[in-house]
Amino acid sequence: MRFLKGRDLTVDFLFLIALCFGLYSIFSISVDYFKLQLVFALVSVFIYILLGIVNKELIRVSLFTGYLVMLILLVYLYIFGDPVRGSSSWVKIGNLALQPSEFIKISIIYGASLILSAKKLNLTKKLLILAILFVPAFLLTVFQPDLGTAFSLLVGVASVVFISTISKKQFLYVILLGILAISVSFSFLQDYQKTRIQSFFNPNSDPLGSGYNVIQSEIAVGSGGVFGKGFKKNTQVTFQYLPESHTDFIFAAVSESFGMAYSFSLILILFGMSYRILKKHVAGGSNIFNSYFAMGVFSLLLLHSVLNIGMNLGLLPITGLPLPFVSYGGSSLLTFSIFLGLLQRFNSDP
Fold this sequence. Notes:
two-stranded antiparallel ribbon; mainly alpha; single chain; 350 residues
């Protein structure tokens, strides 16, 4: 079958297993959220399969059209957006909420891979075109402000630049520009974001305020033990001590319910998927463009996994980045599903 030719069945398997873990995790927290996430999951699977057979030229046109649409929505949010938890990141469409800064990652990583793999352009032109593509989306995301997503955008693009054929000296310039961008974006931090950073270093200084989330997350993870308290017996979630248990702190929530055995299995799935992409698609990509695109997907999947799990364990500051395929939310789930679907399509026959 043409659909199966050239596909990485290991990624297919890990994708489906991750979805199942995510759905069961959300079901253990809220039936209502589970019903909505199930719809997102079914749509994600449909798109994932569809991308395996769609024409590559149609993909190219769709991604650049999608970039323009998402950029317009980011401008709209900057002007008319209503802040939710201090950030204007969501466009409401009926009962659904769309996060343009998530979806625009797809077009930016695709565009960066296409630009940096172009043989007819010199390095200066490549970086100039890449800056024109990247900077508007990055700044508009910073202005929301959503520094977690902006940082992931920066890391995704930087990873593609890293693997491209530029010299170490030239890459150093890119890193310096990235540091400058982060430094400048710090001035746009809201007070609650600055407090998050401070509470990371000393959460007990304000246990009922800025340090509350971290402390409750650590309690949830620690109280779960090896096999957990059991289904629906997670008191941190049931009595609403743990905030955002279905999104930001879902890892802590399931660690309390099902213990270290479950959460470690989840880690193996996500990091196993990352390793598979690195080994099979980055190192063994069928062409330069495919390797560059795979590097962008690998870096974003790994970054989200590390930062989310790290903040749940109290090892990293709270960033608000969702845990791929597990945290509740359609934007993140669809984005990573599209990333993997495109990864499979680009490594298949024309």
